[in-house]
Specification:
The chain is mainly alpha-helical and 70 residues long. Helices cover 50% and strands 0% of the residues.
Length: 70
């Protein structure tokens, strides 16, 4: 249950990278640092929550071995 750690880690890194890149480019986002912090804390809470998330472990991909020719 809860948000998988790799997904949350990816969101944290992407958020930090995105805002750092914008800051270096001189772009003002208008998003206060507090809002970013609240979002990251929210991700942390989702990791320990009981909210079910889709897991692709049970998904099967069926292949067909057809050869298409003209």
């Amino acid at each position: 249950q809860g948000l998988p750690s790799p997904a949350a880690a990816g969101m944290v890194v992407t958020t930090a990278w995105f805002f750092h890149t914008l800051h270096e480019a001189g772009v003002e986002t208008g998003v206060p640092a507090l809002a970013i912090g609240v979002g990251l804390v929210g991700l942390g809470l989702l990791m320990v929550s009981d909210i079910p998330y889709f897991s692709g472990k049970g998904t099967t991909i069926r292949r067909t071995n057809r050869v298409w020719s003209c």
